[in-house]
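Recall that a protein's primary structure is simply its ordered list of amino acids. Everything else, from secondary elements to tertiary packing, is in principle encoded there. The following example makes that idea concrete.
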Amino acid sequence: MKLTLTREPSTDEGTFGVLVGPGLRLRTVELPWRSNEAQHSCIPTGIYEAEVFQSPTKGRVYLLKGTAPRSMIEIHSANFAGDVTKDWQSQLLGCIAPGLGVGRIPNEHGRLQMAVLNSRSALARLFEVTHGAPITLTIVDAVDEAES
């Protein structure tokens, strides 16, 4: 199944986007763009294959291939993906978290932070639509898509 993640401009609170495919429309959050720096940045735009993987810590997730020099980039549930060096909370180290929506919720520091909402339900919806089959994920920036 082919899915497209269109990213909105990156901020210190995270990189939000929209994940779409046949019968699917979810919101996403990733780390801010930090030049593909491991554990501090989202991955570059591009086309990635992904397969179901049983993560020892996250359970059933999608694992992206072709992310070298990065590794273990997953699609798993989480809410926050801010720049921790700027006192924002993150539950991601480079992965992608789906959500049913986006809003501001209190982080671990008591600050309101942009986050995806209902991430576990969104991940379940992703698996419901894909039936756990391999996916091809195309990641684009909204600016790039507007120009094409």
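Helices lie at 119-130, 142-147. The first helix runs from residue 119 to 130.
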